[in-house]
Amino acid sequence: MSFFISDALAQDAAASQGDPLLGLLFPIGLVVILYFLMIRPQVKRQKEHKKMVEALGKGDEVATMGGVVGRITDLGENFAKLEVADGVEVKIRRQAVESVLPKGSIKEL
């Protein structure tokens, strides 16, 4: 009968138990690495973007996430009017502003 079923060999009970905290060290380490490599930089970028959007002012030259470049002519709490050409204004969400351009950047375009 031992031809089909191999003999079970008992292991030392103390060797198989180990330290339970040592088994949790690897998953905890992965969570810490995930936090520092992915979550923390994203939260930092979000804070910087929120600060930039709150500091927008009339006359600032901005680029939106959609690639529209223009000068802010009017600001509201959630929306802004952007002059993209002479006499052409577009209403955008303030959160859609990707970056504030240096003064005179629109003339170069």
Q: What can you see in these coordinates?
A:
The chain has 109 residues and is an alpha+beta fold. It has 3 helices and 5 strands. The chain has 2 domains: 34 residues; 52 residues, SH3 type barrels (Roll), CATH 2.30.30.60. A hairpin with a 3-residue loop joins strand 2 and strand 3. It is rod-shaped and about 90 Å long. The termini are far apart.
Write a short abstract of this structure:
This protein has 109 residues and is an alpha+beta fold. It has helices at 13-17, 20-54, 105-108, and strands at 61-64, 69-75, 79-85, 88-93, 97-101. The chain is rod-shaped.
For the structure shown, list the relevant keywords.
alpha+beta, 27% strand, 5 strands, 40% helix, 109 residues, 5-stranded antiparallel sheet, SH3 type barrels
